[in-house]
Amino acid sequence: MSNNVSLKQLTDDLERLEKEAANNISLAVEKEELEKLRIHFLGKKGRLSKILGSMGALESSERPIVGQRANLLKKQLNELISGRFNKLKEEALAEQIANEKLDVTAPPAGTPFGHRHPLISTTEQIVDIFCGLGYEVQEGPEIENDYYNFAALNIPEDHPARDMQDTFYLDNDLLLRTHTSPVQIRCLEKNPPPVRIIAPGRVYRRDAVDATHSPVFHQVEVLAIDEGLDFSHLRGTVMAFLKTFFGDLPVRFRASYFPFTEPSVEVDVQWKGKWLEVMGCGMVDPAVLEGLGIDPDRWTGFAAGLGVERFCMVRHEIDDIRRFYTSDLRFLEQF
User: Fold this and answer.
1) 4: left (phi > 0), else alpha (psi -120 to 50), else beta?
2) CA-based, 20 to 30 A from 144: which of 25, 32, 200, 285?
3) How many domains does the chain have?
């Protein structure tokens, strides 16, 4: 531009630049192309800078007019470039979504292997041991009625186990089972002796939550009914099971009381120098068999019950039962 440049010439140049830039920006189809246009029109050596460099030939009163017009144009062009950039980005994403196909049958990449929950693996090991001894698995409902949970098991109406402090009662004489022992009643109703069953499952009691108690926990019930079974068979079965599960640990039997077994005992193992109770068992009370129409003079049997959480805590040296229910991956990934 010559030094005789006029105000009209510069304003005309700005107008032409605006139209050309707006047209080129609207036609751009690549992000790299937009960047080149920005440099061409707005860069330090771009078209707008050259126009502004000619302002020195204008009268001092005319320079602000060109300066204001140039600043407005620079703002407009930056907005056009930014808008076009966002538009291209949206169009690229829409095209990618339209063209991409997801193969839901393809194996995931880099997915870590999961872990068996310690309570599940412990239950499975207990079940496997008894199945190896000739027992079969039986299951029953978690919502029971008074008959199966209490009455059929020779638990009188005034027994503490019936207290609201221990049992979750529902409507219509229903309740959440407090043990898996009802499964043995349901099994004996449908299957005459001899029977050998193991009944794992979830049970519920109104216990306060602390390091060793939970209102929801897991039990395994064991039942054997046959001709000629006596306490020596019970003791031999329990000893074989505990030795397989824990190894060679000292075991002791202590006299106890359960309404549905007579005699009844609790079983302890010596763990880290202390006796720890791990299960209760006993010979099935004849009254339970009579209530099911089974002749107790011909058939005898034994039952045992154990808590899966207790066995798992001892096996893995876990100090707090609440850890099983927190879904803490730092804890679960250890198993």
Assistant:
1) alpha
2) 285
3) 2
Distance CA 260, CA 292 (A): 13
**Residue 108 CB neighbours (<10 A):** 6
Q: Which domain holds residue 64?
A: 7-99
Dump pLDDT digits (tens) for 143-192. Answer: 999 999 999 998 888 877 677 668 888 988 899 999 999 999 999 999 99
pLDDT of residue 187: 94
Tokens 């004996």 appear where? 188
**Within a domain: residue 113?**
no
Residue in the block written with tokens 């058939």: 299
pLDDT over 90, % of the chain: 40
Report how far residue 75's alpha carbon sits from residue 86's, in angstroms, rounded to the nearest whole number. 17
In a domain, 2, yes or no: no
| Count of CA atoms in the C-beta half-sphere (13 A) of 267 | 24
Q: Is the peptide bond before 263 cis (omega within 30 degrees of 0)?
A: yes
Task: Tell me which amino acid residue 213 is.
Answer: H
Q: 147 with 239, same domain?
A: yes
38 assigned to some structural domain: yes
Backbone angles phi, psi at 205, to 5 degrees: -145, 155
The residue that leads in pLDDT, 212 or 39, is 39
Rounded CA-CA distance 96/234 in Å is 69
The CA distance from 165 to 146, in Å, is: 16
pLDDT of residue 65: 86
Residues 6+ apart with CB under 8 A from 90: none
Mark whether 153 and 31 lie in a shared domain.
no
Give domain status of residue 112, yes or no: no
Please report, for the domain that includes residue 214, its CATH number: 3.30.930.10
Measured distance CA(9)–CA(301) in Å, rounded: 113
Q: Are residues 56 and 186 in the same domain?
A: no
The answer to whether residues 76 and 20 touch, using CB atoms and an 8 Å cutoff, is no
Same domain, yes or no, for 75 and 33?
A: yes
